[in-house]
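Quick one: co-fold with adenosine monophosphate.
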Amino acid sequence: MRVLVYGAGQLAQMMYLAGCPLGIEVHAVEVSNDTVVHPVSKRPLDITLAQAIESSDALTVEFEHVPERLLEEASKSEKLYPSIDAVLVGADRVREKRLLDALNVPNAAHKVVTYIDELEDCISALGDKLIIKASRDGYDGYGQWRLTSEEQLPELKQALGNLNLTTVPLVVEQMVNFDRELSLVGVRDKSGDIKVYPLAENLHHQGQLHVSVAPAPNVSDDLQSKAEDIFRNLADGMNYVGVLAVEMFQCGNGLLVNELAPRVHNSGHWSMSGSDTSQFENHLRAVVGLPLGNTAARGPSAMVNIIGCSSFSRDLLKIPGCHLHWYGKTVREKRKMGHINVTAASYRELGEKLEALGQFVPSEFFPTLGREARKLKHIEP
Ligand code: AMP
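Sure, here it is.
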């Protein structure tokens, strides 16, 4: 069997690796020049995009910002999973908000702005603590601005002055005073069967995910089932096929959906060692029509992103249950270079292992690691 992935980054690479034992060959599309490449070496393959589409059993995406013309071409083959509509929901915050509202999924109070002076109306309606997000092409905190008091409005308007809001509107959200950030990664197959991983707790720093812990500590059955209901509602509502990630804010016992990722997701990487079936394997299974695998967690685990740094001691592999996943990219500031998965028998042990990990990596690139380690060490079993 063969799967063609649009996008040739680390997610395509990890799908390729998950496909090997299943006998699923994964090819990738470098979307900047329409070439078909090997997902690990990134070397061009001797095959055109049209031939690759023709010879694949399923087409999928590793990121939502695939040019629309390529998505349309892929969709025509009737082998694209998830569907073009689902991918576009992830690529456009206006579509995303429309979907959330249509399905009555709780999310931050918001307004869509296509004309800069509408920002005054936003303040009247939502208050003066706002997050302003470009509706397209924003990621990892890019394309986002914050307003913390009305006095900052002229400055904000100036910062937004050169944007064309008619083509790329803004989504203006009320700032949510959340307790923590969680995500639910799950998978739905072609017959509507759904399996979800336990909620993961996500630690961000400067808009980027640094650490995920799964299962998230201190999650009541009620909270997990609220998250699963949201997932089902969204996945069924979109007739979704494949892995879908739902990023949420926990506020008391409630959940607000922040963002959808119509693909395998960074906050699901822990599943490579922490669950019976990784998100990458489950995604491939779903899109080619194989039965879905068990998504339960084996025990507590953590995923630590390696961001903007390539020099650290490989001796971190001495820590039992510690696995390195290196993406083979050239180092750049803020670039995700790889991740480290750590599994343990208890949260306390997980905290101890993260503390040990801190001795092998440069602390300036891992600003949340120590905090997370200390927190986990104090969780009762
Ligand atoms: P996003 O690109 O929408 O995932 O936002 C990046 C990060 O900004 C999130 O992970 C949150 O930490 C923060 N954030 C986004 N939206 C809000 C909001 N409405 N209220 C408070 N924080 C937010």
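If it helps, The mean pLDDT is 96.
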